[in-house]
Write a structure and sequence with these properties.
389 residues, single chain, 14 helices
């Protein structure tokens, strides 16, 4: 506990009313008051702010988003009294941005060790790099999902910033990234070379229009992530005027809340960050209120977790075997009778199994099963298979 407390400033209680009403979320949260710091062994979700914006290329400042969001979030109704939530306060930023990344990685690593889900409120999205480093420290190979209108891959010769953080992760050695997924990219904002690179690396990229056509089909993609990085610029400006890179197109508020609920439902997801929300550019607190509602929906999903992750207990799932005559192989599908969610098993070489034991069971949808029944190899299966080769 003392180890964690050193990293944080106490929560600014002047942001809140003197006393929360009994039904509000704030009434049931353990706050870092300075005198009293939450014990990670007694909490399930830890909220903290990171007022870091020095590597942002936007002329808008996302440093103070956490304190703008908190009053709206804690005033919402608490439908999840059985979830132990704590607010650790705002991280003390370092002398350099690299110091802040290191502090983020240390904090999240400690929380992961205690099976606590960190919910980080940035700050600029390059803080995702610090989040990634926490898994690297724990030696865990992970999947990253970024909800973003761009890929944030940048150029190899560019300095590190909030639009190039992915590049630093991809080319890090040794590398602990198994898969990167983007949800909601807008093609006119993305270079053709970047799209080609994503395909070459067998990463999952879903265009905004494709995602909005059927939001339920985004659920398997979200369920496959260990780390979710949500750029508020992926939401259209009419719903989120305070985004760092506002755009007339993007997800709407309901879409963003649905994505967060899917994230909460996933047993695999162990950390989440919301970035690029700039309070000075907000209108009537609309963006901060939306971010608060997104957090509420994350808790809503978390409260409905079924414990049916196949990596925990595959024997509890229904198994369906589809014979693929063209490839002369079978694909094993699994369906959870608890949640009606689907997975498919991708053959992993024995010498790699211990390394990728958390990635050979790929979340999918009933449509993937139907596609296989029509002798069509699902794209999700093929992309994962290529990564094992």
């Amino acid at each position: 506990m003392d180890e964690l407390q050193l990293y944080f400033e106490p929560v600014e209680t002047s942001l809140f009313p003197e006393k929360f009403l009994p039904g509000q979320i704030g009434a049931g949260v353990a706050f870092n008051t300075g005198d009293d710091f939450p014990d990670p062994e007694n909490i399930q979700i830890a909220i903290f702010g990171v007022p870091e914006n020095r590597n942002s290329r936007s002329n808008r400042d996302a440093s103070f988003a956490a304190d703008a969001i908190r009053p709206y979030f804690y005033a919402l109704q608490n439908h999840f009294p059985n979830i132990a939530v704590a607010d650790l306060g705002n991280l003390k930023t370092g002398m350099s941005v690299e110091d802040t990344y290191e502090a983020v990685s240390e904090v999240i690593s400690i929380l992961l060790k205690n099976n606590v889900v960190p919910l980080m409120l940035g700050g600029s999205q390059d803080l995702t790099y610090g989040n990634y480093l926490s898994y690297e420290k724990r030696g865990r190979i992970i999947n990253i999902l970024s909800v973003d209108s761009r890929f944030d891959i940048g150029k190899s010769d560019e300095s590190f910033h909030n639009e190039s953080w992915l590049n630093k992760i991809i080319f890090r050695d040794p590398n602990f990234l198994f898969n990167y997924s983007n949800l909601g990219y807008q093609t006119y904002m993305v270079e053709q070379d970047a799209i080609a690179l994503m395909k070459k690396l067998f990463f999952d990229c879903t265009r905004l229009g494709q995602a909005k056509a059927d939001m339920t089909e985004t659920e398997p993609l979200i369920r496959n992530a260990d780390l979710l990085s949500f750029d508020m610029s992926a939401i259209r400006m009419s719903d989120c005027p305070a985004a760092s890179f506002p755009s007339p197109n993007g997800f709407n508020g309901e879409d963003a809340c649905q994505i967060m609920r899917y994230a909460g439902l996933s047993e695999k997801l162990t950390s989440i960050g919301i970035f690029e929300m700039c309070p000075a550019n907000d209108r009537d607190g609309m963006s901060a209120h939306l971010a608060a509602q997104m957090m509420w929906y994350f808790l809503d999903g978390y409260s409905c977790r079924k414990g049916d992750d196949p990596h925990m207990n595959k024997s509890a799932l229904m198994k369906y075997i589809v014979s693929m005559h063209e490839t002369q192989s079978d694909i094993s599908f699994y369906r959870s009778p608890l949640s009606d969610r689907w997975w498919m098993e991708v053959p992993c070489p024995n010498n790699l199994f211990s390394k990728f034991d958390r990635h050979y069971m790929v979340p999918c949808s009933y449509k993937d099963y139907e596609e296989a029944m029509q002798e069509n190899l699902p794209d999700r299966w093929w992309q994962t298979f290529q990564k094992f080769m």
